[in-house]
Write a structure and sequence with these properties.
The protein has 118 residues and is mainly alpha-helical. The chain has one domain. The chain is built from five helices and no strands. The termini are far apart.
């Protein structure tokens, strides 16, 4: 039993999107990782904006979470990724920007303001 984080979704909500997430990877051998835990790890990263290596140890290894994230993030023929569809379907609300992207925008705004005052 791991610690619950505010970014986690309920098991019931996850069961609604499980088939969508499982459809990305062909099942060649039994899965050794809990997809719910992997998905919650992705949500934690999206919400917190932390680095992959800073993923709390309660989640699967960061490389495993990253590998699933990369697969789920590939755009489909319609231009939307499985991850985007899953987030929309489960009604998850969170930042789609990482902390680094938010800071970068803030610094860009400040640079622009300084340029105006010169």
């Amino acid at each position: 039993m791991r610690k619950r984080y505010p970014s986690d979704i309920s098991k019931e909500a996850f069961e609604e999107i499980r088939p969508l997430l499982e459809s990305v990877r062909k099942q060649t051998k039994p899965r050794t990782v809990d997809l719910y835990e992997v998905f919650c790890g992705v949500l934690y990263l999206l919400k917190s904006g932390c680095q992959w290596r800073m993923l709390p140890s309660e989640y699967p290894k960061w490389r495993t979470v990253h590998a699933y994230f990369a697969k789920w993030s590939e755009p489909g023929p319609d231009g939307f990724s499985v991850l985007e569809r899953a987030l929309k379907k489960c009604g998850w609300r969170g930042s789609y920007k990482t902390g680094a992207q938010i800071l970068d925008e803030l610094f860009d705004r400040r640079r622009a303001e300084r340029q105006e005052h010169r």
